[in-house]
Amino acid sequence: MRSHITLDPILKQQLRVIGKADLVLGIPSFNNVTTIAHVVRAAQAGLTKYFPGSRAVLVNSDGGSTDGTQEAVREASVGDSRSILASHPLFPVHRIVTPYHGIPGKGSALRTIFQAAQELEATACAVVDADLRSITPAWMDFLLGPVVHEQFDFVAPLYLRHKYDGTITNSIVYPMTRSLYGLRVRQPIGGDFGLSRKLVSHYLEQDVWDTDVARFGIDIWMSTTAIADGFKVCQAFMGAKIHDAKDPGLQLAQMLQQVMSAFFDLTLAREETWKTIRGSVPVPLFGMEHAVGLEPVKVDQARMTRSFQSGLRDLGAIWSLFLRPEVMRGLQTMGSEPASGFHIPMDLWVRTLHDFALAYREKTIGREHLLQSLTPIYLGQVASFMVQAREADATEAEALLEDLCLAFERLKPEFVDLWERPGRRP
Question: What pTM was computed for the model?
Answer without folding.
Answer: 0.90
